[in-house]
Amino acid sequence: MPMTRKSLSRTFLAPWLLGATLLLFIVIAGALVLNLVRLRDSFAWVQQTNKALLAISAIQQAVLEAETSERGFLLTGIETYRDSYIRARDALAARLDGLRAVLADNPEQIAHIDELRLLTDMRMAQLGRVVELGPERMREALDILEQARVDRLTERIETSLSVLTRAEQALLIQRLSKHDRESLAAALITACLLILAVGSAAIAAFLLEHQRAVTRQQEADQRLQALQAELLRVARLSTMGEMSSALAHELNQPLAAVTNYVQGSRRLIEASSHPDKSKISTALDKAAQQTLRAGAVIQRLREFVGRGETDKTVESLRAIAEDALALASVLTRDRPVDVALSLDPAFDRVLVDKVQVQQVFLNLIRNAFEAMRDQRERKLTIGSRLVEDDMVEVVVADSGPGLDALIAERIFQPFATTKADGMGIGLSISQTIIQAHGGSIKAEPAPGGGTLFRFTLPCSDPIRQHLSFSPAAE
């Protein structure tokens, strides 16, 4: 069966779809990797913000500790407060450097840090002068503190730290919001690509399965065509044999009569006084010899046809019947027939010539389909059972109008038919095939109406099946 342009396009489309599906899965994998990278960046941004907030808090704590130590030393003169101030001052400078390193990628924040450093330097200078004066020069120290209150350096430091904190938090929110939007878009694109990939894979799988189904159907059609050709060949050969046998039978009688007439004429001419009787006798002798020769040829032809030689193998009876049903199904396309195939699986193996027995099934099934064509109820039943002499009996029954009484007695004779376009040799061929297998075939009215044919075939394992056979099973 040649492939159509549509089937060819499907054949070439499936590999392309598989390639596109693979490419889509690669793109999806890339999108997933990109999302993982973005997630890592988000985590890094959160970590950076946490580090910045911790550094800001540490700077605030250092300023507070420096001011507290300065007050304690001024009021008590205890050196511990002086040492604590010095540690807080040194720590403040280190923490400002650390904050600058964390926010090095943000010029605006760097400007705020430089402003904060200026304020903290001024404040630390004031506190350092107060610590240097100490309790001994309390009045001068108080003047410096008063000036610090007027300058409001501490409030300005707190304000600068708050600006840094809010800016860093706002930047984190902005980054996370952008990441969320990009992640959502990437997720939607990935989902669409995934749906497209799954759809492409499903379509490709469907096309591949359809291609395999078409291939299987083409192979089945080719096997069916080969089987039909083989059955037609056997049918032609069998038909030729039956026609030859029938013709030989019909010609033998007139040939025998011709021989008798020639011999009688020779005797008459010999008893006469005809002047040319010698020539006439010679001619009659030659005519008699040719007549006998023709009879001998016909006899040899009949013996050849009547030999019934078959090539027998072990076959499945169900498989043969199913093949014949498949071949005959063309007759039931416009008028379906209810077919019941109830062959006994215990006696499925038979020793037959497969093609010839298929021809028997085909003849009986085709006749049944044609007989039931105009019936309201169209039902065909095919069954089997084990009978005596290690033979399997097959029953083919239809619900047609039944046997015609005018032809019932000679239904298996060649050229006996009631069909206007029939040759009347199908059942004769079937009988010849069955008899060549050592079986028999007969026709009878079906109990519920219609026609029932019975024929027998040899079992493939007579000993085992004979032991398993019981008359009660009938």
From TrEMBL:
Its EC number is 2.7.13.3. It catalyses: ATP + protein L-histidine = ADP + protein N-phospho-L-histidine. Keywords: ATP-binding, Coiled coil, Kinase, Membrane, Nucleotide-binding, Phosphoprotein, Transferase, Transmembrane, Transmembrane helix, Two-component regulatory system. Gene3D superfamilies: 1.10.287.130, 6.10.250.2580, Histidine kinase-like ATPase, C-terminal domain. One of its GO terms (molecular function) is phosphorelay sensor kinase activity. InterPro entries: CHASE3, HATPase_C_sf, HATPase_dom, His_kinase_dom, HisK_dim/P_dom, HisK_dim/P_sf, Sig_transdc_His_kin-like_C. Residues 246-461 form the Histidine kinase domain. Residues 210-237 form a coiled coil. PANTHER family: PEROXIDE STRESS-ACTIVATED HISTIDINE KINASE MAK3, SENSOR HISTIDINE KINASE. This is histidine kinase. It comes from Rhodopseudomonas palustris (strain ATCC BAA-98 / CGA009).
